[in-house]
Amino acid sequence: MKDIIKALATFEERFEKTHQISLNEALLLCVLHESEKEMTPTNLAKSTDLSTSHTSKVIRILEEKKLIQRKLGRVDRRLMYFHLTEQGDRVVAHLQIEETMIPELLSPLFK
């Protein structure tokens, strides 16, 4: 188990160094990209299997990086909806898993 955790940590470190975003940030960006529509924080949390509090943290970070943008609901102004910015779209388009990022223990998962 320790080896798997170390391999995952190594992969995340390499991914973050290459793309300047964490795996959770990439996950949220990909979910927004694939949905092709605006999503509420609750829907993002459900789609990513992250807790609502962690989703809020990731949303805040992505907003600070200007990769996502919030919009108030038209009908219910209490609701917030998030969508990718142009910069966020570019980041998603360039997300790739390089073989050099993958620790040997995890390589069978990517074949």
TrEMBL record:
Listed GO MF terms: DNA-binding transcription factor activity
User: Do you know which SMART domains this protein is assigned to?
Assistant: HTH_MARR (SM00347)
Keywords in alphabetical order, please. DNA-binding, Transcription, Transcription regulation
Record PROSITE patterns: HTH_MARR_2 (PS50995)
Q: Where is the HTH marR-type domain?
A: 1-111
Tell me the superkingdom of the source.
Bacteria
Keyword Transcription regulation in the entry? The reply is: yes
The UniProt entry's GO biological process terms, in alphabetical order, are: response to stress
Q: What is this protein called?
A: Transcriptional regulator
Q: Which classification does the entry list for the species?
A: Bacteria, Pseudomonadati, Bacteroidota, Bacteroidia, Bacteroidales
